[in-house]
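Researcher: Please generate the 3D structure of the following complex. Treat every line as part of one assembly.
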Amino acid sequence: MRAMVYRGPYKVRVEEKEIPRIEHPNDAIVRVSLAAICGSDLHLYHGMIPDTRVGTTFGHEFVGVVHEVGPSVENVKPGDRVMVPFNVYCGSCYFCSRGLYSNCHNVNPNATAIGGIYGYSHTCGGYDGGQSEFVRVPFADVGPAPIPDWMDEEDAVLLTDALATGYFGAQLGDITEGDTVVVFGAGPVGLFAAKSSWLMGAGRVIVIDHLEYRLEKARTFAHAETYNYADYQDIVVHLKKITDYFGADVAIDAVGAEADGNFLQHVTGTKLKLQGGSPVALNWAIDSVRKDGTVAVVGAYGPVFSAVKFGDAVNKGLTLRMNQCPVKRQWPRLFEHIRNGYLKPSDIVTHRIPLEDIAEGYHIFSAKLDNCIKPLILPTAS
Amino acid sequence: MPYTARRPQRFSREELESRIPGWGADLDPADRPAVPRERTDLQTGAHWEFPERQPEEWPRERSVEHQFLTPVFGTTVPAKGVSGAVRKYAYRFSEGRAAHWLILVAADRVDAWGSHLRSFATLRPDNPVTETGVLSEPARRGFRSRFDGKRPDVKHQWLDPVIVAGPWLGVAAAGIAAVRALAARRSGT
Ligand SMILES: [Zn+2]
Ligand SMILES: [Zn+2]
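Model: Done. Output below.
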C-alpha cells in the first residue's frame, strides 16, 4: 500500500509499505477513504515531539471502510463506512470507564502522561496513522462509529478531531451566558472553538491570530470579532482595553506550542527543541483573561517542559482546564448540530491533496501558503 | 466605564439569537457532552474487563511508570541501530525526568541522520528537494509570500538554511574531504 512516511524534520515522502495486519483479536484494518493533516501534525513534522521515528506514518484524522476484522470484533464488519476518533482507547480501564477516553491506560506503553493517538509518535503509543491507504484500528468495538448516511465524508473527517476538539475547548471554558470569550488561534480548532462558544451562550467572541485570511474566516464562518496581534504593540493591553480593562471571562488556547511570537522562544523551542515549544499563546491567555477567569487549553503541547507564566495564573486565581479531547463523547450532540445547520465543518476545508503529493501538502500547510486552513488528503484509489 | 460591580455586556440575548445560528443551543452547562468530566454510565462497546494481550514479538520499550507492557500497543518502527540504543537508554528514566525526553529528542536526530545516510545505500535515497515540499512554492506565490507578511516562517528564514541545509552541506563537505584524503593517499603510494 502507499503511505506517507516521515523522513526527518521537514521531510516526508510516500512509500510502499506492507498493509497492516490484525495483531490483536479486537483489531480492524480500515481502508482509508479520506484523511486530513492537522495543525498538531506540524509539531511532528517539525521534529518537536520526542520519539518520532523515521519511517512512521502520520495522520490521526481519517475515515474509511472496514476491510478486515479480528476474531473478537462484534460491532463493525467489513464494508462498514466508519469514522475513527483520533484517540486509541480500550473502553474498560479506570479512565475509559469514566469517559476519559483520551487518558486510556491500556494502549500506550511508552508513556503514562498521554493516551494513545494514531500516527502521533511513540510517545503516543507508536501507532501508524491514516495518511495512508490502510490503517490498523485497535479496539474496533470501541473507537470507530458508522458514518450516518446523511453525513458528508468531509464533515465526518473533521469530526474525528478538529471540530470535536474545538467544541471541547469551549466546554472546558465553562462558558456561561453572556461571557466574553477570547480564542487564540484561527486555525481549524480555534475556528470551531469560536463557533462552539456561541452555542454555549457566549455574549462576545474574539479571535486573535496573525494571518489575515484566517481572521477573515473567523469573521465569516465563526461570526467572531477579530484582531491581528501583529497590528498591536501589545495584544494583551489591547484585549484589556476592548473589554473595559476587565479582561475576557474565558480564554481558549487553540494554538499550542510554537506560536511564532517570540524569537528567543522560537529558537529554543522550535529550532533547538529545548522546550516543548514556545507557549506564547498560553501566556497571552493567562494574561488577558480576567481575575478568577478560566483558561482552556486544547492546543498541542509536547511533553518537554515549557516556560509557562504560572505565577500569574496563581495570583489571578485562574482555573486552568485542559485535556486531549475524548472525541466520541462529543459525537451525538455534534451530529445534531450539523443536522440543524448550526455547524458545517467542511466549510473550513481549503485544500484537497492526493496522497502522492503529501510533501507539498505538509509544506503548504506548514508555511501557510495559498491561504491554507485545512488540507484533506485523498488516498490514491487502488 | 468605572470599575463597578457590574460586568460589561455588549449585546442582548435577542441580538445574539438573531445573528448567530444556534446561539445558546448548549447554554445549560450541565447538558454539555463532556460535562461532568467523569461519568460511569457511558457504554463504550468494550466487552472485556481487561483486554486480551497483544503478543510481544520483540522486546518492546515501555515507560518505567507502567507496571507492565500495556495489553495493546503500536508495532510500527521498532527501535533499531544506534538511535534505537539511545531510545532504549532514555526509557530507563521516568517521564518526570527531563533526561528521558531530551535523550529521546537526541535519538530522533540520530535516527534522522542515520536514516538519511542509510538511504544513500538504497535505490531510493532521500531527496531534500522533493521531500521538503518546496516544489509547491512556485505555483503558490512562494517567493512573493515571503515579502507580503503572510508567511509564519519568514521571521526565522535566515536561520532555516543553517538548520535545514547545514547538515546536508556538512555531510557533503565531509564526503568531499574523505574522497580527497583517499585520492591523496592513493597518489601518495
Ligand atoms: Zn488533529
Ligand atoms: Zn482505557
